[in-house]
Amino acid sequence: MLAEFNFKYESPIVCAAIHNGHNVSAEVQKNLSVTEDIRLMEEDPYTEKFTHFSSNSIIARTSRFEVDLNRSIEKCIYKDPEDAWGIQTRKEIPTKQVVAQSLKKYNDFYASAKDHFTQLEKKFGKFFVYDIHSYNHHRKGQEADFDDPMLNPEIIIGTNNMPEKWFPLVDKIQNKFISFDYFGRSLDARINVKFPGGHFSRWIHNNFPDSACCIAIEFKKIWMDEWTGNIYEDNLNKLIKALNSTHELIEAELISD
């Protein structure tokens, strides 16, 4: 299964974790040259946990190392190191048959997404998508210093290709994150620092220009150990609550429009 689409259509808000997946098909697995621990580090493990309190969710189950749903169809399969941060991902160039199978999964995903978003549009007029990701900030080594926090916010709000009419809502969401009580302090939430968003948010805005607002949100991995994969449950749960705290204002904004 490439991705799960769980829609109740009770709310105009969708939480998507399209880089959550770790599974790869047998055909792809035998040609992968990247180790599983490196693969897991470059995926967005556990981001599905941010979707569980939403009545509408999209959760990827297939790894971005088979097909990357956040890239255009021309770039969704990693073939060369420059496609994957300098990592050699394949032993050999994938066969046309394997590529065709991955591209079918990609096209099926976007067809399903369009169907569900069209239903939301019909019911609510406008809808909102959280495109949830996570990013590393400890790349130099397990015993090395963390990356400069001035360059790596705890929450990055990406507004890729977003119509200007949604900017006031984005500001409200940012302020909501900043005002959230994160263990007695504020969260560092900034807009379009490092990651403005990828293909998924761009596709949503292109296909639903009058009705959809999609924020690509990157949670810095302050809630897990990048190298071991261990989760810091208290940190994770607080960030989930921070995300959920924005739902009410989003729904109010969509209804008022």
Q: Give the second-level CATH assignment, the architecture.
A: 3-Layer(aba) Sandwich
Number of strands: 7
CATH topology: Aminopeptidase
**Largest beta sheet: strand ordering:** 1-3-2-4-7-5-6
Q: If you average the pLDDT, what whole number results?
A: 95
Number of domains: 1
Basic shape: globular
Number of helices: 7
Distance between the termini: 37 Å
- Classified in CATH, the superfamily is Zn-dependent exopeptidases
Task: Show unreliable segments.
Answer: none
Given the helix and strand composition, which structural class is it?
alpha/beta
N-to-C order of helices and strands: EEHHEHEEHEHEHH
Which bin fits the share of residues in helices?
25-40%
Q: What share of residues are in beta strands?
A: 15-25%
What does this structure look like?
The protein has about 260 residues and is α/β, with parallel strands linked by helices. It has a single domain, classed as Aminopeptidase (3-Layer(aba) Sandwich), CATH 3.40.630.40. Helix content is about 35%, strand content about 15%. Strands 1-3-2-4-7-5-6 form a 7-stranded mixed sheet, sandwiched between helices. The model has no long low-confidence stretch (mean pLDDT about 95).
Short description:
The protein has 257 residues and is of the alpha/beta class. It is built from 7 helices and 7 strands. Strand 5, helix 4 (167-179) and strand 6 (189-191) form a beta-alpha-beta unit.
Produce the secondary structure layout:
Layout: E1 3-7, E2 13-17, H1 26-29, H2 36-42, E3 56-60, H3 96-124, E4 127-135, E5 155-158, H4 167-179, E6 189-191, H5 199-207, E7 212-220, H6 233-244, H7 247-256
